Amino acid sequence: MTIALAGNLDASTAVSTLGIVTQALHDGATIVDLSQVQRIDHIGAAVLLQCARNAKEAGSPLAFLGLNDEMRGVLNALPAPPAKPIMRPFLPYIDHLGLSTYQSARYMFGYATFAADLLWYILREFTRPRRMRWDLILYQASLMGARAFPIIALIAFLIGGTLALQAVAQLRQFGASVFVVDLLTVSITRELGPLITAILIAGRSGSAVAAQLGAMVISEEVDALRAMGLGPIRFLVTPRAIALILVQPLLTVLTETFAMIGGFVMSILYLDIGPEAFVSRLYESLYLKDMVTGLIKSVLFANIIVSVSAYIGLSTYGGTEAVGNNTTKSVVASISGVIVADAICSLLFYFGA
After folding, report:
1. Cα 31 from chain centroid (whole Å)
2. Fewer C-beta within 10 Å: the chain N or C terminus?
């Protein structure tokens, strides 16, 4: 029985290849056809050697067909597996842990390089405003900002009203219902406003960026840009990043405004707090520092969303299924990055306050 492998046999496919070959060995395979393999690295070669060792110990030696000179060189460069592997029952888990760590480190290094390049292009564009492609930037700003406004306003209004209802249930026990305004002001301007906006933008606009760039990679449009000497980061990602940097603070302000309006409406209708008392407490509890830190967070969150989504989108390979998988991955990674950045910013701005 023969099993044929195709494509790349490297660190990114080593785990799946090990599972495929192992299952084939259980099914009685004794020959591995490598004629369709385009590229092999040392990790992929190590997987093949380990599979050959396992097959030999099982009493059915494994033969490799279709080896070219490059494959033979890579296989010969690796030492033979030990006769008695140490901790054999745990080797698959150790291998998986090591490979996952290696892939994560390589992915993070690639993202750090990508984010640094993107930041350089953004700063260079802002130093030359007359050469910026304002038509494309305004178009992207419309897609990411203006069209996202209705859903952001609705959710912010509902969250503001819900937060007021939940908070007053506790404050009323101490006769301090009016201080629900202070809670709304501080929580929304410091944390909830920038965070809610970023999460919604990551799910709406970040996913669109990843899907668009991933589709362009699959259709080889990105390769065509590189062939014409146009870098994809500067040509495709930078206008989207600048557009989101410009609209994210505006959306954050609108989120905070509609959240306060939601709290205002609930306070008047259900919490027996008059308009004058609400506005008075609002002026006393609203600080410029809280608003500025919220805007700083919004700019940072915009950079995280665009850079993560664009990096994952440009890293797409395979078919249309890979575009969908990377789009989902971009949303999860963007929201995770935003939450981590929000925690770090809270420590920097308010630790010891």
Report:
1. 40
2. C
Query: Which of these, 243, 229, 62, lies nearest to 135 by C-alpha position?
Result: 243
Question: Roughly how many angstroms between the first and final C-alpha of the chain, as a whole number?
Answer: 70
Q: Cα–Cα distances in Å, from 216 out to 91, 232, 316?
A: 40, 10, 9
DSSP 301-333: HHHHHHHHHHHHHHT--SSHHHHHHHHHHHHHH
pLDDT in tens, 209-266: 999 998 888 888 888 888 888 888 888 899 999 999 999 999 999 999 999 999 888 8
Residue 54 three-state SS: helix
306 neighbors 207 (Cβ within 8 angstroms): no
The C-alpha R_g of the chain, in whole angstroms, comes to 27
Q: How far apart are CA 15 and CA 106, in angstroms?
A: 16
- Lay out the sheet containing 63-65: strands in order across: 2-9, 31-40, 63-65
Domain residue ranges of the chain, discontinuous segments joined by +: 2-85, 112-350
| Residue 77 contacts residue 42 (beta carbons within 8 Å) | yes
CATH code assigned to 2-85: 3.30.750.24
Give this prediction's pTM.
0.70
